[in-house]
Design a protein that fits this description.
By secondary structure, the protein is an alpha/beta fold. It has a single domain, classed as Rossmann fold (3-Layer(aba) Sandwich), CATH 3.40.50. About 35% of the residues lie in helices and about 25% in strands. It has eight helices and seven strands; from the N terminus they run αααβαβαββαβααββ. The protein has helices spanning about 5-10, 15-35, 40-55, 70-75, 90-95, 140-145, 160-165, 165-170, and strands at about 60-65, 80-85, 105, 120-130, 145-155, 180-185, 200-205. It has a seven-stranded mixed β-sheet. The protein binds S-adenosylmethionine (SAM). S-adenosylmethionine (SAM) binds near residues 65, 71, 91, 110 and 133. S-adenosylmethionine (SAM) binds near residues 16, 65 and 67.
Length: about 210
Amino acid sequence: MPIKKTLKDAYSLKTPEDSINLYKSWAATYDNDFAKENDYRSPIEIAKYFKKYSDHDDTPILDVGAGTGLVGEHLNDPMREIDAIDISLEMLDIARFKNCYSKLIEADLTKKLLINNDHYGSIVSAGTFTHGHIGPDVFDELLRVTKSGGLFVLTIHSKLFKKARFDKKLIEIKSNITRPNFHEIQVYGNNPDIDHGSDKVIITVFRKR
Ligand SMILES: C[S@@+](CC[C@H](N)C(=O)[O-])C[C@H]1O[C@@H](n2cnc3c(N)ncnc32)[C@H](O)[C@@H]1O
């Protein structure tokens, strides 16, 4: 029987290759033994804040680190094109069957993306700007592929906001973005994990100027 994956496995990743390996073996059980069991709230909260801040011009949408497609499912908007991007083919293969994405893009977000400038009207992301995954430098490519006026709604792990210099990055790019709004939320409704059960993320919302 495969060993159950935990947050400890996810938070101890160091490289994009580590992500490929971990999520390859986690994809099939991620929705049930991680998301459902722990009442993982980030995707539904991202969908909620996206709906609060978006208007009809904010399309197409790019779901960054889309994984098995939980954000796409919660956005649940057949009128808007949503694309998923992720380094893990196995996670995207689960997302494929949810029929909420127009396109699935297998790519490493820490590299230059094969996406035209000014293409997306929104960037959404849950659970991916976190320990051992992707950091603030990825904002540069995401800004490049987003249209002027495009909306960003992302979770950033609270413990990393300063430590990984997301705060500094938002200052560095401040002439390219509107003043961000922040909403801190609890990630899990029901996670008994002694180290991470009370983890929080900062939902960060801004527009590209
Ligand atoms: C915790 S999962 C979150 C998935 C989904 N957004 C959710 O909330 O359930 C993090 C995702 O980030 C992806 N990821 C990690 N590093 C990446 C990278 N360098 N480029 C693209 N995706 C990456 C992983 O493959 C994984 O699917």
